[in-house]
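The data layer described in this paper is built around a simple, fixed record for each protein. We quote a single record here, exactly as it is kept in our systems:
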Amino acid sequence: MKILDQLFVSFHDLILNGARHIFPEWIVVIVSILIPIVGIAIFGPVTMMYLTLIERKLLARIQNRYGPNRVGKFGLLQPLADGVKMLTKEDIVPDTADRAAHLMAPILIVIPALLVFSVLPFGRNMIAVDLNIGLLFFLALSATTTIFIFTAAWSSRSKFSLLGGMRSVAQMISYEIPFVLSVVPVLLIVGSFSTVKIVEAQPGFHWFLFTPWGIVGFLIFFLCGVAEVNRTPFDLSEAESEIVAGFHTEYSGMKFALFYMAEFMNVFTVSGIVATVYMGGWQGPILPSWVWFIVKTYVLILVMMWFRGTFPRLRIDQLMGFAWKFLLPLSLINIVAAGIWSYLRAPMNHAAAAVILIIGFMLLLAANKTALPKKRVYKYAYAD
């Protein structure tokens, strides 16, 4: 089992040992740097390709359809066919568009989507760079997506695109705050931003998810992650039924495919970081560590896809109100609950944290309760 657990690490070491017999040490150092870079550059796009297939299949089943099943066995070659189609489609750019910004936006949006893979611990000893600020690195890079989305919207010179871009800016700034605050309890308990140390603090099934503050933090972090990657029901920046296709209305061909690629890679990385922070990452019995990480990540991805096939899109006022009036104060209450949990001993810590969170949750529900419209009373002209 140890061989399977360290399969990719052993393969990495095998390549380096072979390089040491052929090349000088400075080239070996470069090779050791290039191996994770090449691995991420291949894994990211391939993940995106087959996540699209999984989503199309799942949504088809939800809607009582078959989904892609013609290109290859069970439709497994459909992503390759879609890639060829995108490469060969005509690239149409509006006459009034800022051509330089219009070109660069879809290219630049893929870069942070790939870079955040470097701090994901895929398994035991399987991380490209174990930064002591790994979680902060992830949060900072994920926030830059807003800049490139707005650049694409502004450069298109389209009212629909600009409206989608402005929605995206408002949404991401709003949800970024509870997104960051929701991980503060974990940082209080672990005392480190390192994603590896966060995983090591959750041995076996001692996941933070199984604590009162962990359940609330997990839900806030996951829902804000869904909003960060513009997934249903938070996809106001695209909103096909309202503003054509939002910020990428004026994009076609490979430029559109790059936006699509960035979205699905972000879906994987957000699910991976949620699994890392609250679900023990690669921790688990019997199976190899990297299998545990992939299973947990894909469970969260499937939940996101289930959201898309089930929930209607929120209105913009509902979306903003949910972030500012509910998730933000709940994340602050959760920090207090986590502080008390860490100070008290079990089982009092669980009870105290649960009471604080339940009371806070009920108060927020009462404060955000919408007034029901009163029953109308009609008076007719012929009535006495």
In short: The chain has 17 helices and no strands. The two ends are 87 Å apart (CA to CA).
